[in-house]
């Protein structure tokens, strides 16, 4: 039975939970962390880590996408980001860093991002970025917003993209409008809304779509033929402002569990078609990754935790693509590493695999996940999704 609370006369609301509200329950059995697996597979693509990067220019360049692939994860390029708009993306990122110097007004940094994103997406630059990753031999993934998916996907496919991510702040399988589709991260468009079901049916590559925050929308996206559904909207404390700007948001633990329920029902509905659930947001520490999997996630999309890497193109800054929306930005530019940030920069390998000297759970993110599986007696991620949970109340 749903936990409903009365918030006023004649109006009730469902109680929901975030990662900070829950804990994982240990079991009677433990294992060595050397005999557990954190591997994850979507379609024909297998990864040693259940990691997909949030497609932010602050985290992913073509070169960091390659490095993340070699370390066991999946680096997702933003096909509408600076690498697709500027021949010298490094100089563009330097302008963001310059604008974000100590004492700068937050609005000034966002304005700089908006200016940089006002340049058009160039198919030649997009192709070059994708081919850099493809030529390395690692799996190639790229993100497009719903309103630009039809336009940019042919260029991405011809360049060699193997996994396509259709992602906005909030994505639905049904959009009602008069040609004013807004995928959440770009300008309003005069093009017809994307019919996601027809779009996916015409593609030969797996599509991951989202974000969603409730059972019904997750189920609708699964029925479009998506191979994976993104839960959340890249929420990162101190960075994203969707809840402040739009008043919309569902705590991640509840959103994931609801999406996992949709996945289970869809599996029964189709007689065995499994759709992966990706958690995008709410992860600050390694324990949150474990909690995301415990709530039903097959993989996590990480943004801010990876922005602390020395290789991150954002130079210790983090923002989501919603920061560059020309009329309604929904992300700040926040310092996450170095120069007064919460943590010091470390290399990507150490960030993901350790060893760690900091006890706060911001380094050795996936070594900690292995240890969580081992300490609770589970051998792989699918088993760990059945671990017991408690609520802190």
TrEMBL record:
Question: Which example biological process does GO assign this protein?
Answer: GTP biosynthetic process
Keywords assigned: NAD, Oxidoreductase
Q: Is NAD set as a keyword in this record?
A: yes
Superkingdom of this entry's organism?
Bacteria
InterPro entries annotated for this entry? Aldolase_TIM (IPR013785), IMP_DH (IPR005990), IMP_DH-rel2 (IPR005992), IMP_DH_GMPRt (IPR001093)
Pinpoint the IMP dehydrogenase/GMP reductase domain residues: 17-318
Q: Name one GO molecular function term.
A: IMP dehydrogenase activity
Q: Which PANTHER family match?
A: INOSINE-5'-MONOPHOSPHATE DEHYDROGENASE, INOSINE-5-MONOPHOSPHATE DEHYDROGENASE RELATED
Report the family membership: Belongs to the IMPDH/GMPR family.
Name this polypeptide is given = IMP dehydrogenase
Which source organism does the UniProt entry give?
Answer: Prauserella rugosa
């Amino acid at each position: 039975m749903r936990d409903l609370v009365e918030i006023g006369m004649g109006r009730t609301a469902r109680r929901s939970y975030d990662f900070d509200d829950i804990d994982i329950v240990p079991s009677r059995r433990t294992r060595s962390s050397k005999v557990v697996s954190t591997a994850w597979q979507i379609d024909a693509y297998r990864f040693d880590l259940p990691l997909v990067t949030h497609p932010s220019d602050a985290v992913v360049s073509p070169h960091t996408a390659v490095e993340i692939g070699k370390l066991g994860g999946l680096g997702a390029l933003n096909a509408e980001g600076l690498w697709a708009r500027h021949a010298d993306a490094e100089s563009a990122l330097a302008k963001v860093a310059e604008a974000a110097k100590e004492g700068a007004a937050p609005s000034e940094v966002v304005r700089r991002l908006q200016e940089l994103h006002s340049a058009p997406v160039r198919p030649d630059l997009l192709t070059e970025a994708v081919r850099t990753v493809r030529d390395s031999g690692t799996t190639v993934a790229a993100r497009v917003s719903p309103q630009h998916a039809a336009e940019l996907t042919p260029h991405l496919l011809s360049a060699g993209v193997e996994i396509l991510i259709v992602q906005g702040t909030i994505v639905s399988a049904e959009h009602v409008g008069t040609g004013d589709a807004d995928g959440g991260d770009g300008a309003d468009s005069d093009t017809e809304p994307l019919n996601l079901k027809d779009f996916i049916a015409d593609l030969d590559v797996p599509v991951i779509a989202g974000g969603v925050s409730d059972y019904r929308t997750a189920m609708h996206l699964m029925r479009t033929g998506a191979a994976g559904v993104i839960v959340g909207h890249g929420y990162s404390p101190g960075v994203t402002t969707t809840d402040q700007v739009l008043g919309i948001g569902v705590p991640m633990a509840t959103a994931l569990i609801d999406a996992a329920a949709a996945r289970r029902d869809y599996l029964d509905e189709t007689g065995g078609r499994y759709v992966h659930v990706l958690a995008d947001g709410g992860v600050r520490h390694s324990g949150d990754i474990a909690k995301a999997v415990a709530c039903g996630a097959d993989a996590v999309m990480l943004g801010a935790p990876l922005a602390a890497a020395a290789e991150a193109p954002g130079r210790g800054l983090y923002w989501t693509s919603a920061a560059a929306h020309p009329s309604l930005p929904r992300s700040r530019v926040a310092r996450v590493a170095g120069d007064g940030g919460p943590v010091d920069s470390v290399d990507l390998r150490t960030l993901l695999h350790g060893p760690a000297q900091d006890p706060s759970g911001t380094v050795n993110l996936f070594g900690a996940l292995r240890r969580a599986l081992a300490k609770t007696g589970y051998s792989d991620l699918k088993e760990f999704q059945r671990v017991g949970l408690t609520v802190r109340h």
